[in-house]
Design brief:
about 210 residues; alpha+beta; 5-stranded mixed sheet; 4-stranded antiparallel sheet
Length: about 210
């Protein structure tokens, strides 16, 4: 009696498995690309690019070195670079700010002043910002505006205080996914995780069918 596989030559099961997995992935990626093309999404990423103290706390507390802005002393000066990016494939318009409310980002420490603003690509309009309140301002408002597809805006602030977590305390955008992470960070993490798992999978012995 013949059994299934008896007529096979030397067949490496790994090659079958790899071919099947690759074919499956290609099909899934094709379906995912078609879905994205038919349903473009709006996404707004924001993150802290850098948060750098201008001097060691020991020098500020000793009084040997001091920094002042408009006559007021800045005890714990630090430079914070904050980035907002429209990573989607469609523009974000001012009408998407519900009830004409602003995005509010809370730094947790006093904002002394905005030092620079840079918007790319060249020619893109820099979103306007304001500050809520009048005493010890710790947050800024990104007012309703047009943020073009793939536009990246960098704000550089002078902050007085410890390094604190930045929070989005008000998010009025409609039909826009707001994400606190560097674009592509999650995808890179998944790829690295898969690469770390593969060696373990490769170590699992699989049978090799041979002609009897």
């Amino acid at each position: 009696m013949k059994i299934a596989g008896e007529g096979w030559g030397n067949v490496d099961v790994w090659s079958i498995v790899v071919t099947a997995v690759v074919s499956l992935l290609v099909g899934l990626l094709g379906a995912w690309a078609a879905l994205r093309a038919g349903n473009p999404k709006r996404r707004l990423h924001w993150w802290v690019e850098s948060n750098t103290p201008l001097m060691s706390p020991q020098y500020g507390s000793s009084g040997d070195i001091s920094i002042r802005y408009q006559g007021s002393r800045v005890d714990q000066p630090r430079i914070v670079e904050f980035v907002v990016a429209n990573t989607g494939r469609k523009d974000i318009t001012s009408s998407m700010f519900h009830a004409d409310d602003s995005l509010i980002f809370d730094f947790g420490e006093r904002i002394v002043r905005l030092l620079t603003t840079n918007s790319s690509p060249d020619g893109s309009t820099t979103p306007p910002i304001t500050y809520p309140g009048t005493t010890r301002v710790v947050a800024f408002e990104l007012n309703p505006c047009h943020i073009a597809e793939r536009q990246v805006v960098r704000f550089t602030f002078l902050i007085d205080g410890d390094e604190a977590e930045v929070r989005c305390s008000q998010m009025p955008l409609v039909d826009v996914r707001v994400v606190n992470e560097v674009p592509g960070a999650r995808r890179r993490s998944l790829v690295l995780g898969a690469l770390n798992v593969l060696p373990g999978i490769a170590g699992i012995p699989l049978p090799v069918f041979r002609r009897r």
